[in-house]
Amino acid sequence: MVRAIMILLLCQLAGTIVQQAFGLPIPGPVMGLVLLLAILVWRGGPDPVLHETASGFLKYLGLLFVPAGVGVVTELQELRANALAIAIAIPVSTILGLTVTGVLMQRLARADG
Amino acid sequence: MPMDRFPLPFFHVWAYLQTQPLLGLTATLCTWEFCSLIDSRAGHRAITNPTVLSIALLAAALLITHTPYAAYFTGAQYVHFLLGPATVALAIPMYANFASIRRHSGPILVSLTAGSIVAAGSAMLIARALGASHQVVISLGPKSVTTPIAMGIAQNLGGQPSLTAVFVMITGIFGTIICTGALALVRVKDWRALGLAAGTAAHGLATARMLRLNETAGAYGGLAIGLNGIVTSLAVPVLVKLFGF
Q1: Is the Cβ pair B89, A57 closer than 8 Å?
Q2: Looking at the partner chain, which of A82, A93, A99 has a beta carbon nearest the beta carbon of B133?
Q3: Distance CA B54, CA B36 (A)
């Protein structure tokens, strides 16, 4: 398991170094994801330990967003001042984004076979 | 702590705990376990999503106890840090669906780009029409993208990154609650489409929910988080110029 965590952290580290060195807008962990995916394609899949550890992490993905989410309390004043605009813009645009992507993907992927 | 000084007045203990990681970390895990219990008792309904419930409970606790967010984050940062390796770990379900993703790369790019532009453009247009400040309008643009990318985009355009982080969270919370319902309403049943839509419109939060429902949906969600990060960082500056935000 330590080896699996090491692999995940090494990919994140490599991604972060590339991102910082070239000033890219894509965050380090996302670059690390791409790197790990490339390694998996090259090696023909994850070994069982990496598979198990990654699944363990992803099982609690929802928990990992909690600390950042609680940060809502830091912007309450700005939110209150623009409450109506925010309360309409976010839900409507999110529903539009969801349905446009979902409907298009379902149609195009089906036509694709 | 010498025993003869015990018991300390309550506020001394409280003040001490606020400087330590122990309380924030314990509170985060306890709240999560409690909310997970509620969620499973309620049969995993959208409104009992443990992430959303935990954020609401902890935010309320901070406000009631007048605890600064920074004091809470001293402990919560250890959970927050794990978001990095967990993002990298999304490569594993993506690899499991790699053949399917490659086969559908055309539809994926088209649907994701369309959804991304619609989400960002409509958010900024609606906010401006309703009289939101320039700062708020710009900060809303990248709200469908994962937090670090969104904050970077906002900064480049003269928005307020901390405000964007909050919008990203509100979008994620709202998207997590309504994603399955909204997509059922327009009769989207394909797991690939469900996952891609969730990841495009409401990033990792909605993807975490998809991952609990179906592995393929989770893989497409993970893919959408990364791809939409790239698409949005290219599209929002163009939208800002186009509509003169």
Answers
A1: yes
A2: A82
A3: 9
